[in-house]
């Protein structure tokens, strides 16, 4: 064989390695005793860590084949990096990684030759316990039954695996808690005390095994127990304070007696800060002298205590806190307020408000009322309320006087002596005039202000000055009206006219004394007073009030005895006040009408006096440089409106005075308002409030009265019904008519609507005015008819008792007028013509406003019978029933020839109509039966004067003989058929031939005498 194939050559090159691999695999198959043992113990598949996790279920996690591992612990730390071994023992000393154990956590079955049993929870409690394998002779674990150490506990809570099962010697809290939960540890560790280091009170421990650390006692830093230790003494002050602190420690409660630290004998010291002493006068004249008051009444026990020694830890700001008790006389004995100068709001000195604690020490002092011995760095001796060491002792230089501490440069107290050697009640009790609470409101800062302000010294009013050249008695001058508090007086502050903040003011104390230093306040910056003439000038209080649309005008009143001013003294009164729109509102028509008068009050109700427009009712709203416009027209309209004057655009809104008058009606409606502009007459002219023509005046039934084309009388002027404008009846809270009366009592409506007769048309018209509803015809068309434009309404209703539409007319059958008459016809109802219909005009339907095609009148002689000529009547009275015949009857049978043609009378069936003749003895020449209705309607003669002008121009129609409104059926004492004209005289009777009807009258020229010139015509119709 010359050569081998290339792949065989390569195979032989790696033959040794392949052989070695095969051998190793055979050995592995033969079994390594260790691997087989693990497999045999654990079962297949091989899982060394007992299925702790998927990442530890492979040998390759810990073992590296064919690599010599020099550090057996490396594999363990690769997964357990935070675990530390105990006393340099290897992990395998205690753990069996291949799980050849029944113990939890892979703990070996035996450690150092001793049996171990571990269920994952119990570390000690028997010789087989894992910890007691080694710790049976230590201080904490011993076979001695009296040396137990947290048996049956999880030791790793204090001895973590991460620390190699050692307790960290730097952390007392690991065992004792953070902080220890017993006693008052947490109180000492709060932030402001800051005792968060155990060695502040306890001895330092290098190691938990130090002698004395585990001796069964709680040792303090001086190696004494709590009862004997002096560690508490520095912080808690006096022995009594220390004793209470130790007692409070055990009970874990707050210390109640603050003087244990806050005392002058041995105060408490913490962080180098000494507790302020409060004990010396606390129970003498401090708050401790009052029952029920302790430190926590004012101080907040939960506030930081030691971080800021200057922080008083008050429950509220001083004045507010003090007022909790001292605004209640039942607790404090008197009401008090803070000292300020708010009663003099324009004083020369800067305003100030002192807090209570600026002068008082709540813990007490050597002075009365706990007054501080030093105020504003000045010594103060206040030992009596009068005389020596009082508020202002007599004859001294005010060096240590309570009041002079601040008031050494004021008018009444000066250093070294009083002003001008004029003592001011020296040695007296200042609080008799300058009370601690002046105005009765403790919430205001006015303590020690003069009682009554300036008036306490100057009087109300001031008395005459001591100077002989001032002649006036101020009791008689305008002082009272300016400054008095009685009704009608303005109660102005003195500073309004004696303003000591004004430039040029000579000071509160004038020399020589005078109250004529008059300088006005900021509301009157240009005001001046002339002492010689005693007059004011350029003062807004005495002006016309700067009218919105006028010019500001000042008046110069004189200060004199008995001087008074009326409204006209500053601005014109209502007689001649013409600025803006005043003149329009205050015309004689409006202001001189008694209870309905319009004056100042109606627009300035919060200022003026009602029913007296020259008087001011509320002086608070007068001379205040404001224009209070507040409408109140209840006295005029009987109700309060929601009117408002808008000062931004000078308009008046929602005022009943400027409305359409709906609220003034006897049946009030919802008013519509206009918005007039003050000073603009055009904005309030006629037509801006309510309409004054047919297009705009649409409320109620106005539109019907203005209407002249259909149903209205076509009234042209408001004065037809109402009073002329202007008049006293305008804007008086009523709707007045031309006779000066209101709707319910006016007689203005009587002529048009007929107050008399069978139907009271006036009452109906008034009741329907607000709704604007249509009126019934009967109110005008009765036996006392309405008269419009001199023409009476035709009588339709009659007397409503013996005759008339409802008695003898269609109304008796339940029909209404509109059954035949159409309201909406384009005809003029009130045209002023008695007879609107004319035959020549052919306007019968329109003139009578007839429905349904109406009646065609006149009917000319060239027209043959047509149903449409009688359409309205045929609506109810059917044509066959009126002009038809019975079966076999022919209308042609009737003839007017005399004698009748041969063959008469013919025997035929009866006619249907009730107006017929059936006897040869009756009218119609024996031509029976005869349909008399047909005979008349088929007449070929112009036999009827339809418009009453004396000319017959129409064939007969239904209304030639019948009046659908009914007639006087008992005229002349004779009963005539209903709805048949009485002047025909149709009566009914009985004779030998039978029952008959008879025409009994002659002379009815416009209807029947063409054919019937005489009476006595009979026609028979069996009943």
Mean pLDDT, rounded to whole units? 78
**Rg (C-alpha, Å):** 63 Å
Give me the side-by-side strand order of the main sheet: 17-18-19
Determine the number of helices (DSSP H or I, runs of at least 4 residues). 26
The percent range for strand residues is: 5-15%
Helicity, in percent? 10-25%
Euclidean distance between termini CA atoms: 166 Å
Structural class estimated from helices and strands = little secondary structure
Q: How many β strands by DSSP? A: 19
Shape: elongated
Largest sheet: 3 strands, antiparallel
Q: Give unreliable regions as ranges.
A: 1-46, 343-349, 416-422, 888-897, 904-908
Helix-strand blueprint:
Blueprint: H1 6-13, H2 15-30, H3 33-42, H4 74-79, H5 91-94, E1 110-111, E2 114-115, H6 173-176, H7 185-188, H8 233-236, H9 239-251, E3 269-270, E4 273-274, H10 318-326, H11 329-332, H12 356-359, E5 374-375, E6 378-379, H13 455-458, H14 479-483, E7 528-530, E8 535-537, H15 582-585, H16 588-591, H17 600-603, E9 608-609, E10 612-616, H18 634-637, E11 644-646, E12 651-653, H19 702-706, H20 750-753, H21 761-767, E13 787-788, E14 791-792, H22 844-847, H23 871-874, H24 879-883, E15 916-917, E16 930-931, H25 932-937, H26 958-961, E17 986-990, E18 995-999, E19 1017-1020
Antiparallel strand pairs: 1-2, 3-4, 5-6, 7-8, 9-10, 11-12, 13-14, 15-16, 17-18, 18-19
């Amino acid at each position: 064989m010359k050569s081998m194939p290339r792949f065989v050559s390569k195979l032989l090159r790696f033959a040794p390695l392949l052989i070695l691999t095969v051998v190793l695999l055979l050995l592995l198959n033969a079994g390594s005793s260790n691997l087989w043992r693990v497999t045999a113990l654990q079962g297949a598949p091989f899982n060394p860590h007992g299925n702790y996790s998927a990442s530890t279920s492979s040998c390759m996690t810990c073992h590296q084949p064919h690599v010599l591992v020099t550090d057996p612990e490396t594999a363990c730390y690769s997964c357990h990096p935070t675990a530390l071994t105990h006393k340099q023992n290897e992990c395998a000393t205690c753990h069996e990684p291949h799980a050849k154990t029944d113990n939890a956590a892979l703990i070996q079955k035996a450690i150092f030759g001793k049996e171990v049993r571990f269920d994952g929870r119990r570390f000690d409690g028997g010789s087989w316990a894992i910890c007691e394998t080694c710790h049976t002779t230590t201080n904490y674990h011993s076979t001695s039954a009296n040396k137990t150490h947290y048996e049956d506990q999880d030791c790793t809570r204090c001895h973590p695996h991460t620390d190699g099962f050692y307790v960290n010697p730097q952390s007392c809290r690991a065992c004792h808690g953070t902080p220890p939960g017993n006693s008052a540890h947490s109180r000492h560790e709060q932030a402001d005390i800051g005792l968060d280091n155990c060695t502040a009170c306890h001895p330092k421990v290098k190691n938990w095994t130090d002698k004395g650390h585990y001796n069964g006692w709680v040792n303090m830093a001086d190696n004494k127990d709590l009862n004997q230790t002096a560690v508490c003494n520095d912080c808690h002050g006096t022995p009594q304070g220390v004793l209470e602190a130790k007692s409070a420690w055990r009970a874990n409660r707050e210390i109640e007696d603050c003087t244990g630290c806050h005392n002058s004998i041995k105060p408490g010291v913490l962080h180098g800060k000494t507790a302020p002493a409060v004990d010396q006068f606390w129970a003498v004249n401090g708050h401790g002298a009052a029952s029920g008051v302790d430190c926590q009444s004012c101080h907040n026990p939960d506030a930081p205590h030691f971080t800021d020694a200057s922080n008083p830890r008050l429950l509220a700001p001083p004045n507010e806190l003090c007022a909790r008790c001292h605004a209640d006389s039942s607790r404090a004995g008197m009401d008090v307020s803070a000292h300020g100068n708010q009663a003099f709001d324009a004083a020369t000195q800067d305003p100030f408000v002192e807090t209570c604690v600026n002068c008082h020490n709540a813990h007490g002092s050597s002075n009365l009322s706990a007054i501080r011995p030093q105020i504003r760095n000045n010594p103060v001796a206040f030992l009596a309320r009068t005389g020596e060491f009082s508020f202002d002792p007599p004859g001294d230089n005010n060096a240590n006087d309570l009041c002079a501490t601040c008031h050494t440069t004021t008018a009444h107290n000066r250093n070294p002596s009083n002003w001008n050697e004029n003592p001011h009640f020296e040695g007296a009790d200042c609080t008799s005039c300058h009370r601690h609470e002046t105005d009765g409101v403790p919430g205001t800062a006015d303590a020690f202000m003069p009682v009554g302000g300036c008036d306490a010294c100057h009087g109300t009013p001031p008395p005459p000055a001591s100077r002989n050249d001032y002649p006036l008695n101020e009791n008689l001058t305008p002082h009272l009206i300016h400054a008095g508090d009685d009704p009608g007086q303005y109660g102005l502050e003195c500073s309004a006219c004696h303003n000591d903040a004004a430039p040029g003011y000579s000071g509160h104390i004038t020399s020589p004394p005078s109250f004529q230093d008059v300088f006005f306040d900021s509301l009157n910056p240009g005001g001046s007073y002339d002492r010689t003439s005693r007059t004011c000038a350029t003062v807004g209080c005495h002006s016309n009030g700067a009218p919105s649309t006028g010019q500001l005008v000042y008046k110069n009143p004189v200060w004199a005895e008995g001087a008074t001013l009326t409204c006209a003294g500053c601005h014109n009164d209502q007689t001649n006040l013409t600025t803006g729109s005043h003149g329009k509102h205050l015309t004689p028509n409006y202001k001189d009408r008694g209870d309905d008068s319009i004056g100042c009050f109606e627009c300035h109700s919060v200022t003026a006096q009602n029913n007296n427009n020259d008087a001011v009712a509320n002086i608070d709203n007068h001379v205040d440089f404001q224009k209070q416009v507040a409408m109140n027209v209840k006295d005029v309209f009987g109700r309060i409106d929601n009117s408002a004057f808008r000062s931004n655009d000078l308009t008046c809104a929602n005022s009943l005075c400027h409305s359409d008058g709906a609220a003034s009606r006897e049946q009030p409606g919802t008013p519509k308002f206009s918005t007039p502009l003050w000073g603009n007459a055009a904005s309030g002219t006629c037509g801006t409030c309510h309409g004054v023509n047919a297009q705009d005046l649409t409320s109620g039934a106005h539109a019907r009265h203005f209407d002249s084309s259909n149903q209205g009388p076509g009234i042209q002027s408001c004065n037809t019904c109402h009073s002329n404008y202007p008049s006293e009846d305008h804007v008086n809270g009523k709707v007045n008519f031309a006779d000066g009366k209101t709707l319910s009592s006016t007689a203005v409506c009587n002529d048009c609507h007929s107050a008399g007769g069978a139907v009271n048309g006036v009452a109906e018209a008034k009741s329907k005015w607000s709704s604007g509803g249509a009126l019934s015809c009967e109110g005008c068309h009765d036996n006392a008819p309405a008269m419009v434009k001199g023409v009476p309404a035709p009588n339709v209703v009659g007397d409503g008792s013996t005759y008339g539409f409802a008695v003898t007319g269609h109304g008796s059958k339940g029909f209404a007028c509109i059954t035949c008459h159409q309201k909406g016809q384009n005809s003029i109802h009130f045209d002023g013509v008695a007879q609107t219909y004319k035959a020549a005009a052919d306007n019968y339907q329109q003139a009578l406003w007839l429905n349904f095609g109406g009646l065609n009148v006149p009917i000319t002689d060239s027209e043959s019978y047509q149903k449409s000529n009688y359409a309205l009547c045929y609506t109810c009275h059917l044509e066959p029933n009126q002009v038809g015949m019975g079966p076999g009857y022919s209308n042609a049978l009737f003839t007017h020839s005399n004698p009748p043609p041969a063959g008469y009378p013919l025997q035929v069936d009866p006619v249907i109509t009730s107006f017929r003749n059936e006897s040869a003895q009756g009218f119609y020449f024996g031509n029976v039966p005869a349909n008399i209705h047909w005979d008349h309607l088929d007449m070929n003669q112009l036999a009827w004067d339809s418009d009453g002008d004396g000319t017959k121009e129409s064939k007969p129609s239904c209304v030639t003989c019948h009046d659908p409104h009914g007639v006087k059926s008992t005229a002349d004492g004779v009963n005539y058929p209903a709805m048949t004209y009485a002047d025909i005289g149709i009566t009914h009777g009985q004779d030998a031939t039978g029952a008959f009807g008879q025409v009994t009258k002659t002379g009815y020229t416009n209807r029947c005498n063409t054919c019937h010139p005489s009476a006595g015509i009979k026609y028979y119709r069996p009943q």
